[in-house]
């Protein structure tokens, strides 16, 4: 019996189990955040409409607070506890849900649900590719960074120009970039799992939250750009 081959198979199996467990943890956090983000506007718009009207006065403050939460979670992840990281992530998801309640004022609800369905299907298909591919997608990090900067610049320029062509160029580029980021981030999360296999549980929990935040942002941004295409605006 070749003990070296047996040992290698055991290591591979162990790494696979650790990777799968870590990815399940990340996905469970991300899905929980998305469910919270979905339930909040449904409740506000259909069951507490007056509260929605009141909250619209504070949307700018909420948006700034959201940016602060993302920055706090990204830069302080090594110093905060896993419980704090989870609370910040779910608070961000809740606040995002409050902002998303405004979409029902702009788009017909059925077109929002239709776009949400398309986003879910795209996320699953692209995510499976990103997780199962043997290619290391981290080599495309510069491409995605350049794409994100380009989207931001186009958006800023178009605030002043209000050019339909730039609007649609930014929209198509946004769909392409955030679709690619789904595969990129899941691929990266898979490899992170190998590196943290011997680390403590606290670090695994916190890295799971960061991974969930990245995928959550990919999903939300893809949804918003698809909504530009498929969303039917109210008259």
TrEMBL record:
InterPro entries: Bax_inhibitor_1-related. It is a multi-pass membrane protein. The keyword Nucleotide-binding does not apply. It comes from the Bacteria. It is found in: Membrane. It holds the Pfam family Bax1-I. Keywords: Membrane, Transmembrane, Transmembrane helix. Its main location: membrane. The keyword Magnesium does not apply. The chain crosses the membrane at residues 26-46, 58-75, 87-106, 112-131, 143-161, 167-186, 207-227. One of its GO terms (cellular component) is plasma membrane. Belongs to the BI1 family. This is Inner membrane protein YbhL. It comes from Fusobacterium necrogenes.
